[in-house]
From TrEMBL:
Keywords: NADP, Oxidoreductase. Residues 10-323 form the Enoyl reductase (ER) domain. This is Quinone oxidoreductase. PROSITE patterns: QOR_ZETA_CRYSTAL (PS01162). InterPro entries: ADH-like_C, ADH-like_N, ER, GroES-like_sf, NAD(P)-bd_dom_sf, QOR-like, Quin_OxRdtase/zeta-crystal_CS. CDD domains: QOR2. Pfam families: ADH_N (PF08240), ADH_zinc_N (PF00107).
Amino acid sequence: MRAIVVSELGGPDVLQLSDVDNLQPGPGELLVKVGAAGVNFIETYQRSGLYKMPLPYTPGAEAAGHVLAVGEGVIGFQPGDRVATSDGRGSYAEQMIMSAERTVHVPDGVDIKTAAAAMLQGMTAHYLTQSTYPVKAGETALVHAAAGGMGLLLTQLAKTAGAKVIGTVSSEAKAKLATEAGADEIVRYDQFEDEALAAEVLRRNGGQGVHVVYDGVGASTFEASLASLRPRGMLVSFGNASGPVPPMAPLRLSQGGSLFLTRPTLVNYIAARQELEWRAGDVFRWIQDGTLKLRIGAEYPLGEAGQAHRDLESRKTTGKLLLIP
Ligand code: NDP
């Protein structure tokens, strides 16, 4: 079968389409024919070496597809089942291994591409808005990169909760998408820096700081995010799209007004099977009842994985990116 193989760390060109050996499911595992694989920022961090991976490896954790074979001891899954995971092994491939424990069935009425697009970012938007900081009616959330994969979902879920959303974007086309997703105010953060960006956020919020900042951009927005909060507000720093945030003294949280800072990651919010089923179930239900609209920004053939990374890293994309084997 064919898979993307990374044999050395580097830029998007290290993502090479290769012929590899067929896979066998081990105990507790499923062999899955990948219908669509999600492209996520984490795979760029792994490819560049920011997050460590043993070489060589096939990237990708998120996909949806059909079960081809089940390993020893698997209960509840059979060949032919439609399944999805955010936590599989090597989804940039025609076939991959999913742990049965980390996999859910795709409900009727949700197609395979939508399921692949929904798992990682959908469950992340779920835990950020329902568990990390459950934003409420009457509160204001600042959502950075509001037209991105995560940004469009966070904006919709914060609006569903009744909050006011201030979204940041880098272009007018992205501003339009974030507005369609429900953002009340749009700030062009490419036109402001640090204190000036925070001042603009406060101006758009009646002179008040916001209750929560959902920040997946990282290094370039961190200072503005802290300065945009009201006393006892929470900065949810969940990504590094512009680079990792440098070290910071806890005293700054006190000086900013008894602020909270958290750096969460999905695995800890779906560690229990029950929690995984709750979050995936809600996301699929919200897609079916129209609460959550997924935007698939682009689809790439497997061999163009490098181009998908290049586009994602150069801020060209909106919504979710998929690889179609
Ligand atoms: P996006 O679709 O949001 O793409 C990233 C966006 O970030 C760009 O489109 C761009 O929007 C903005 N951006 C700002 N500065 C830069 C820069 N220097 N380089 C690249 N992009 C920049 O990506 P995802 O939705 O896939 O991921 C968003 C973030 O969420 C990532 O940091 C990712 O790691 C994180 N994440 C974290 C998870 C967790 O559990 N902690 C789980 C899932 C994702 P604009 O042009 O408007 O500035």
